[in-house]
Amino acid sequence: MLAVLSKWYYQIFSEEESLILLLIIAVGLFLVVSMGDILTPFIISVIFAFLLQGLVVMLQRWGVPRPLALALTNLLFIGLILVALIVVAPLAWKQMVTLFSEFPRMVDDARQGLAYLQASHPDKISEELLVEWDETITTEISRLGQWMLSVSVAHLPNMLVVLMYLVLVPLLVFFMLLDKDKIFAWFSVFLPEERPLMRSVWLEMNDQMANYARGKAIEILVVGSVSYIAFAVLGLNYAALLGLLVGISVLIPYIGAAAVTIPVTLVAFFQWGWTTEFFYVFLVYSIIQFLDGNVLVPLLFSEAVNLHPIAIILAVLVFGGIWGLWGVFFAIPLATLIKSLLRAWPRGEAVTKVVELEG
Predict the structure, then answer these.
(1) Among 123, 109, 88, which Cα is nearest to 247's?
(2) Helices within 121-195 (DSSP H only)
């Protein structure tokens, strides 16, 4: 037993670089868990800097000087933030307020529908069951109202934090892009001079996650915009809000698409009922989801993030359960990191050395 444990220990922790890499990962996870709220603007800035770095490199390949490429990239970034704040956010907020005001009417329509079903099929749906459903609906609506009130009151002070982020994040992104080489050089001082394991993991992570992060940003923009245009053309209420939800849902593979189907279907049903318009909306929404999964995703990602669907769903469930929204957002990057570590971790040679020493 001790011999087996000894071989396992030397196989995994035989090199100094392995211990340092594990220490870096442990410290990083500890900081995210313990100081996630404080480090939120920094984490957001790292994500955006990672996304925008590809644009800087592309402009430089086209012959644009690096200072001008940085300036154009930051202007584009600030412009997208302004568009989101001035155009998208107010429209989505207005439609959300309208949806909440219409919610009691939708509930009354649902109750009338249940009453009609009970009257049409009294042998299958009893009055006791109808009363039980009605009480359940009333209880859940009351809980939803209390939750919405508590959330709105609790988040009022956060408006100042949001305003601070709007200034702090673009500033951090600018300096991260400007001094990327200096930051990497400073960080490399604390690493071993010979680091093949870290270099292997970094190259694989950088290649895969650059494609993943930029691909997800494009996918959100394309799917959200197409959904909004399709819903607006079909005359569906709250098209901007639902388009935004559909776009954001692509961050959570498989689960997001299934979850956002519920509000789209309910809004269409309460607006038109079992009519041709309802089935048109459902058909168009299904086509968008089909094209996203079978055309857009393979085109954008090209097998760069080669994870099995079971691994992706498991990562979303595990990391989402541990860190909430941040865990869901970073589920695939973290799963990719684990995969890269398992592939690049040294094995075999250390065990051979231990066997030779014991012999």
Answers:
(1) 88
(2) 127-154, 158-178, 180-188
Contact 332, 253 (CB under 8 A): yes
Render 16-78 in DSSP notation, one character per residue.
Answer: HHHHHHHHHHHHHHHHHHHHTTTTHHHHHHHHHHHHHHHHHHHHHHTT--HHHHHHHHHHHHH
Per-domain boundaries in the chain: 196-352
**All residues at 6 or more sequence positions from 303 whose CB lies less than 8 Å from its CB, including other chains:** none
Tens-digit pLDDT profile for residues 66-110: 888 888 888 888 888 888 888 877 887 787 777 777 777 777 777
For 75-104, letters b (16+ CB in 10 Å) and e give: eebeeeeeeeeeebeebbeebeeebeeeee
Q: Which two tokens stand for residue 36?
A: 């996630």
Are residues 78 and 170 in contact, defined by beta-carbon separation less than 8 angstroms?
yes
Residues 127, 115: Cα–Cα separation, whole Å = 9
Say which residues have a Cβ less than 8 Å from residue 106's Cβ, sequence separation at least 6.
Answer: 266, 270
In the numeric block, the tokens 């009922």 are attached to 273
Q: What is the CA angle 329-199-57, rounded to 5? A: 65
Q: pTM for the whole thing?
A: 0.68
Per residue in 19-68, pLDDT (tens digit) is 777 777 788 777 777 776 777 788 788 878 877 887 888 888 888 888 88
What pLDDT score does 55 carry? 82
177 and 52 in contact (C-beta within 8 Å)? yes
Nearest to 203 by CA among 344, 329, 327, 85: 344
What is the distance between the alpha carbons of residues 265 and 267, in angstroms, rounded to a whole number? Answer: 6
